[in-house]
Amino acid sequence: MAGDDTIPHHAVVVIGGGQAGLSISHYLKAEKLDHVVLEKDTAMGAWTKQRWDNFCLVTPNWQCQLPGHPYDGPEPDGFMRKDEIITYLEAFRHKVGAPLHEGVSVKRVKARAGGGFEVITSTGTITADQVVATSGGYHTPIIPRFAERLPKSIRQIHSEQYRNADSLPAGEVLVVGSGQSGAQIAEDLHLAGRKVHLAVGDAPRCARFYRGKDVVTWLAEMGYYDMPVERHPLREGVRDNTNHYVTGRDGGRDIDLRRFALEGMRLYGLLDALDGTTLTFSPTLKAALNEADRVYNGINAAIDKHIAETGIDAPPPSVYAPVWEPEDEPRTLDLEAAGITSIIWCIGFQPDFRWLDAPVFNGAGHPQHHRGITQVPGVYFLGLPWLHTWGSGRFSGIDRDARYVAERITELAAGTAPGLKAAS
């Protein structure tokens, strides 16, 4: 489809300049397909602006398999720290050489009457035959409304704003949420000597190492990371699951909230409400800890089965036994009496695709697609959690997803997509 001569036109507009946007650009360039990548901030800015100082990967470096850019450093079984990740990604950016435009935010994408799409940006309007949303699914930080009523003397930040323990005012800290970010931030503060209160959610956990190998290595050998969402027991429901908490810090180890409690961290159940300066919690702590341990032992049991069935020579099995049990379910916390001066909200993000005017979303605002292909010809998603497999939102699976989406884009552009008419 030809655009208005007065409006810039591209065969494909890619919206988002993170690893997903650059990955699809890699394949579009290989197909010599005209495209542009628009990034509202700086390319892969989330890695420099939304990660704390001691952040590191929770999966081994060998899983970093961006298109044409596998990890080739000296520690394939190690876990890159923030500065090393940025170096790895900068090398990828340079290698791809994408037609990237930074500082350009997309305000609206809508279908054109004559075919294709109009893309309204902060720097003007362009048109496209096809569009790919590669901005991920973590857009709007979740903070409960009652947080507005907390005393102004208490500093509140979201996990994306946390940098280090010294950046917080002196005093005790409440971390709300125990997913990957919450558990690791709580550990970071705990190791820095801060008194931490942690509101524990329903996140599962897993071992770092078991029977002589990293658990990720075992799961890769067992084919877990190649399982498509359609074959997962939860089907599409797995996209709403909270990630297991574990860490790659200091060479990798388990995160055991029970051990933190033994060492002085104060644990609570789900945060429920606020009354004055007193927070109330649901009596869910014991159940949450028990369920996290059940998942932990269940993953290890699956590895035991794999070892037995394949006859692998490995160290003997083991079962985690709790090192601490809560004596009761703490139901309240007076922030002023406890000396809490900071709260870190680690309860995730909501997607925000309001800029995309297309019938491709469910009632919760989440994209509906199959492997990133929507029911609207020419509209695609890439880089979402469980877009196709566990690795879809990570360095490990984006290559396969980007290649697949690029093939569909090329087919549509050439008029060979099954059941679809190419834009003209």
UniProtKB/TrEMBL annotation:
Keywords: Oxidoreductase. GO terms for molecular function: flavin adenine dinucleotide binding; monooxygenase activity. This is FAD-dependent oxidoreductase. PANTHER family: FLAVIN-BINDING MONOOXYGENASE-LIKE PROTEIN (AFU_ORTHOLOGUE AFUA_4G09220), FLAVIN-CONTAINING MONOOXYGENASE. InterPro entries: Auxin_biosynth/cation_transpt (IPR050982), CHP04046_FMN-dependent (IPR024000), FAD/NAD-bd_sf (IPR036188). The keyword Oxidoreductase applies. The keyword Oxidoreductase applies.
